[in-house]
Structures are given as structure tokens and as C-alpha cells.
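[Meeting: bench + compute handoff]

Bench side (C.D.) handed over the final construct sequence. Compute side (W.E.) agreed to return the predicted structure before the next meeting so the bench team could plan truncations. Sequence as handed over:
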Amino acid sequence: CTMSIGEQLKDITTLLKASPEDWEDRCKGLKKLTALVATTNPEHYTALLHELHDLTSLLCTCIADPRSTVVKDVCATLTSISTCLGSLFNPFADAFIPKLLNLSFVTIQAINEPSDSCIKSLLRNCQVTLIPLLINTALTDKHIVTR
């Protein structure tokens, strides 16, 4: 008996909501989400996208996680989802790119490199509408590296 997309995403949501000490559960949830998207039939993408909307804030929390393993896994998950869904993932990419850009200034390579690679994948796989806004904001930023 297979679980519906909604049931699987409820299980994933529970794992992603794990306490900070249970970071391994969040990683497990991210891997389950990657597998779910990869195995979802394209005719069910609409239902998947509807359910994914509820996970956006949890995925943003994973992006900001201090553990490099969680950041690496969320970046791999977002890359995989954007590859599978393509332009259907556009609204989500707009939500994740600013969060990922914040990691581009982190000096820890295990966090910086996956986030950089993820941004490139999102830009390649999606039509991100935020780019002009991000450029304008970056040009006036106080942080010299951002400018």
C-alpha cells in the first residue's frame, strides 16, 4: 500500500519540524522529500506543488541551520526539486534564493559551496523574477562583499 503525496508530506513535515538537537531527523526528512519529488508522476505535480507550499518556511529554516550537513542536504533537495519541476518551481525559487544568498558570505566551505551550487541550479532550472531586485538591493548594501 502506497501513501498519498499528502500523507508522505505530513511525515516529511514532522521530520523537518524536529527540535534543533534532532538535526538527523531533518536530514532524513530532506532525503525523503527528494525521493518523493523524484518518484512523483508529472501528472501529480499540481498536487505536489500545493503541498510543497506548506513546506517553504520549514525549508527556509533548514537553509539557516548552523549544521553544515543540514545545509548541504537542503541544497541538494532544492536542486533536485528544481531539476524535476523546472519552471513550476519558480515561485519557490524566489523564496529560497535570498536565503541562500545569505550563506554566500559564510566562510565555512561546507556551507558556502552547496549554497552557491544550489543558487546556480535554481537560476538554471527556474525563471527567477527577483534578480533585478536583488541586484538593486546589493548595490546599496553596507556589506562590501555584497556590493
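W.E. noted at the follow-up: The chain has eight helices and no strands. C.D. will use this when planning the next construct.
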